[in-house]
């Protein structure tokens, strides 16, 4: 019997390789192969497609590359970061942009070191415990209702982003959101509360950035074009007075939409999240890492806000951040491995892919063609709906662009010329174009403010598109309403 037991417990020998049964591909893998084949076929067909009048062959092929990239991103044919790395391959293979130029447009863009530095700061907030320390007073202010917590993240992001780049705001707020979601134990990708919190801070930052000239680069570019091409000099106060009420209304509706589209499965947050008042916010005494992170954060904010006087590039400040959080003796990270494992590299690659697509759309003339081909048909739209039409047009044109500044640079000059040729209010419609340039929120790849936190895994491509389309339509409607109330028919024309 003992021998028999030993025989029963002996491991079974593996069959010869020739006799092994290979499992058939899963249905999901077969679908992905279909998407891969469809994309490859579309790229080949783009080489022989007829060219519309006034459009360059490179522009047609760029449009196909954008469509294929979005298809592969939406279906996750490849991991999303890998799809981003396929962008320069497609651009070079179709002779749109050389591989060297595509890599330069993506990896060489100043926004990459800027993002890397702010990602490092976000990692320091999380690793040092500073994010948790700031989370407690935010939660006390919001109360225990999940919907109110979502609103606090949206409105705090909105207010800060009025005076700071929205990506910096997203990455500064993210550690607090991530700490909250980690503490509540929500599942990545499967929690409406997780989706609501992350999308609230993202959309709050995007909408707040459009409200003032300081919020985003597209607004500064718009002011420059208004002065140069239209002879209109718009003050900071005037822009803010017109824009802030519009975007506060949009933000309020967005908060409502987020809670309705993604109703939190948690109605009341547990009181243990709020810490003890007697423990200085529930986190005890400040650690050396927290003090260093706070000091580096203040330094970065001061240098970013004073860049007009110091002339320091934003990327320069971001690289200083990396040095600050890794200082000997007082830094949060002492080894590169510790810092590296806390940075979402996939999100950074996704950003780079979007930058390469956007640059190709600009280089090939695709973006300019879309605006030029569509604008002349818009003159028949009633005057009070012109701002809405401009917002929707620029929003559609921005789908292939991953930079607020590029979108404004492409669209604003055409909109100014259109208003002048048709006797329409220059300022009202140019501000409308600036709003749409600043509010990139339909595709994950349209702005690093979405693509970077997307890598945390709490929301999907479809979640962004569902909310983003509704917010874009609401922005169009409320922009027309706001411009009309501001006196567009007479007082705002040149």
Q: Average pLDDT across residues? A: 81
Tell me the major beta sheet.
Answer: none
Radius of gyration: 25 Å
Structural class: mainly alpha
Low-confidence stretches: 1-12, 276-281, 489-494
Strand content: under 5%
User: SSE order, as H and E?
Assistant: HHHHHHHHHHHHHHHHHHHHHHH
Number of helices: 23
Shape: globular
Count the beta strands: 0
Helix content: 55-70%
Gap between N and C termini, in Å? Answer: 102 Å
Describe the SSE topology.
Blueprint: H1 2-9, H2 27-45, H3 57-75, H4 80-93, H5 99-107, H6 111-128, H7 130-142, H8 146-161, H9 166-184, H10 192-209, H11 217-230, H12 236-261, H13 288-305, H14 307-310, H15 314-325, H16 336-340, H17 345-363, H18 366-375, H19 386-397, H20 404-422, H21 426-438, H22 448-454, H23 461-485
Helix pairs in contact: 2-3, 3-4, 4-17, 5-17, 6-9, 6-13, 6-15, 7-8, 7-9, 8-9, 8-10, 9-10, 9-22, 10-12, 11-20, 11-21, 12-23, 13-15, 17-22, 18-19, 18-20, 19-21, 19-23, 20-21, 21-23
Give a brief description.
With 494 residues, the chain is an all-alpha fold.
Summarize the structure in words.
By secondary structure, the chain is mainly α. It has a domain at 111-215 and 249-346. Helix content is 68%, strand content 0%. It contains 23 helices and no strands. The protein has helices spanning 2-9, 27-45, 57-75, 80-93, 99-107, 111-128, 130-142, 146-161, 166-184, 192-209, 217-230, 236-261, 288-305, 307-310, 314-325, 336-340, 345-363, 366-375, 386-397, 404-422, 426-438, 448-454, 461-485. The longest helix is centred in the middle third of the chain and has 26 residues, at 236-261. Mean pLDDT is 81; it is low at 1-12, 276-281 and 489-494.
